[in-house]
Write a structure and sequence with these properties.
The protein is mainly alpha-helical and 349 residues long. It has one domain. It is built from 16 helices and 2 strands. A hairpin with a 2-residue loop joins strand 1 and strand 2. The two termini are 36 Å apart.
């Protein structure tokens, strides 16, 4: 799992109890937003032999390098705001940069036997993800969080802007909020614990209109993220994948392991947090489980089926929401242009 995978995983788990109501806001209810989809009855499946997966909705996401440009500008603006209060700026990027291909891999079980036999479920970070970790390795000075996030109303006798310096930075980057910026303020589930509500609120960017627009364009709680989540739910319920999961389960039982799905094997608490948190015995067990998993997934072509189904469902969702998605893409490009101008020392509108 890549940078921000904690937030990504949290968002996927918590949003699963909330997605139906939220997706209704963008019109995902009905056949296009749930069920198996009649057009996918005979979906062609091709083996997935690469660790790189590309899905249709990726064309509506900023690329890895574009995300870094936006996040650098956002951090620079927020840092300038902090300095106006006599506080030091952040020492690393504030936001979470998640390469589109890494987000796709959180949906698809791509596991090679060679990697599993050597690393289990936790291979070394790629060069790209190492770059992300370095960019995000900084932090903020103690005592500046209230001004940064807007939980303080004043600091040193000076008013703090709505949403804090992050809200101010978002407003400057977004510029004039127009209809092309999808402003969605979905209600949060009433049964969430306070800490989960707080994290989900930050994930979705609830706050000022500008902050909401910025988060809708840059976070997994935005329009594209919600459609990706919808395609994932559709895929998980598809009879073809349900049958493949059952065959995978039988294969794993023969190998001596009882997990109901590949996701359950990967997220076993004994190694889900990475090698540093696992005992030597757990690491050895992880390698054995992952190796069996890789063999069973290859036997039933699990990843190939997942990619085929996600591709089909995302194509359907794009056709249904093409107008909103094109407006979203245009808004992303304006955001990127503003960020590029900020880093060049000037601001466009």
């Amino acid at each position: 799992m890549g940078p921000g995978s904690g937030d990504a995983g949290f968002g996927r788990r918590v949003l699963s109890v909330w997605v139906a109501g939220c997706l209704a806001v963008v019109g995902c209810s009905g056949p296009a937003g749930g069920g198996t989809g009649p057009a996918l009855a005979n979906v062609p499946v091709h083996p997935v032999t690469s660790s790189t997966v590309s899905l249709p909705l990726d064309s509506y996401r900023l690329t890895f390098q574009q995300q870094i440009v936006v996040d650098r500008a956002f951090t620079w603006l927020a840092g300038g705001c902090l300095k106006s209060y006599g506080l030091p700026g952040p020492t690393g990027l504030i936001g979470r940069v998640i390469p589109p291909e890494q987000a796709d891999l959180s949906l698809v079980n791509v596991l090679s036997l060679r990697s599993a036999e050597k690393y289990g479920y936790n291979p070394p970070l790629t060069a790209q993800l190492n770059e992300v970790r370095k960019l995000e390795s900084g932090g903020i000075a103690p005592g500046s969080g209230g001004v940064l996030m807007g939980t303080a109303t004043t600091y040193g006798g000076k008013p703090v802007p709505p949403g804090g310096c992050m809200g101010k930075a978002a407003a400057e980057l977004v510029g004039k909020v127009g209809p092309a910026f999808p402003l969605v303020r979905p209600p949060l589930p009433s049964n969430l614990p306070p800490k989960a509500r707080s994290r989900l609120a930050r994930l979705l960017g609830l706050g000022s209109a500008a902050a909401v627009a910025y988060r809708n364009l840059t976070s997994q709680g935005g329009l594209v993220g919600r459609l990706v989540l919808a395609s994932d739910f559709q895929m998980q319920a598809n009879p073809k994948l349900v049958a493949a999961r059952a065959r995978w389960h039988v294969c794993m039982l023969k190998a001596g392991f009882d997990y109901n799905a590949p996701e359950a094997a990967r997220s076993d608490h004994r190694w889900a947090l990475g090698p540093s948190s696992a005992t030597p015995a757990d690491r050895a067990l992880e390698v054995r489980v992952a190796s069996a998993d890789a063999g069973c997934e290859a036997k039933v072509d699990y990843a190939g089926l997942e990619v085929a189904l996600l591709t089909g469902y995302q194509d359907q969702l794009i056709n249904t929401h093409v107008t909103a998605l094109e407006a979203f893409k245009q808004a992303e490009q304006r955001l990127l242009a503003n960020a590029t101008a900020v880093l060049a020392g000037r601001k466009t509108t």
